[in-house]
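Notes for week 9. Today we move from apo structures to complexes. The key idea is that a small molecule is not decoration. When we ask for a structure prediction with fe (ii) ion present, the ligand SMILES becomes part of the input, just like the chain. The input block below holds both the sequence and the ligand string. Read it once before you look at the output, and try to guess where the molecule might sit.
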Amino acid sequence: MSLSEEEKHAFREEGVLIAEGVLTEADLAPVISEYSDWVDRRARFLQAENKISDLCEKEPFEKRLASLYAQSPEITRDMDIMYARGPATFAFLRNAHLLDVVEGLIGPEITCNPIQHIRAKPPAALSGEGAGFYNVPWHQDAGVTWEEADNSDILTLWIALTDATVENGCMEVIPGVWKQGYREHWDENGTTIRPDLLPEAPPRPVPVSKGSLIFMHRYTPHRSTPNYSSGVRWSMDLRYQPTGQPTGRPFHPAFVVRSATNPESVFTDYTEWTRQWIAALESSKGMKAHRVK
Ligand SMILES: O=C(O)CCC(=O)C(=O)O
Ligand SMILES: [Fe+2]
């Protein structure tokens, strides 16, 4: 699927675009299966440490982690992309259906920015309603890079791995204000826009079904709300940018995922990707990834 001119125009105006049903079951299955296996391994590890008694093996992907989390919140530790480093996830970062849509917004020379996360948002009844990695407070993604990326056209791509609803803590955005540029952030349980600089415009909740995408401009304010369901809101948030521009995280690995002019530059070496992340995580310990203001 590629974007229509109307959709591209809407993104330029609003700084947010929903692309429904871009990913098929076949696109998502390898990642979901990889993370189902990851959860299973982690649950068995915690069982061996007597932190989990019931493996909840019969429960579906969108439920099991909640039941395990209720027994031990340690279930989610080191789940994120750069720690789990699964081969299916690495391949997914250059999924053709994703990149076809990304190309419509930033052109055919595409680099995968290293700010990439998978989030399994547990029920707030278990994890609390406070701001943090799950209940992300109002911010612009430009606020989580170094200033070197201020002129980089970094596009945020939020992917629903399970249905994201108002109840289970979908994204909220403030459309139309990205043109006003960067707003100062500070750190209060996460990097957040200074409350006096938050736009008055009403936020828009963005519920999306599994396989749908939300594109956000790096200056679009967004947050996500607590999960008031009993299941898990699984999502990924990835970022893509034109090749050659600073990523805002020079200490983490970026790589080319598509190139019209130099197709051989596309990076497909899984072993090398894992090696680069291991080395980068080691050498960037203690480094502040977000800008100070
Ligand atoms: O998934 C969330 O709850 C927050 C995601 C986010 O801030 C982003 O995609 O940039
Ligand atoms: Fe964000």
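The CA atoms of residues 105 and 128 lie 36 Å apart.
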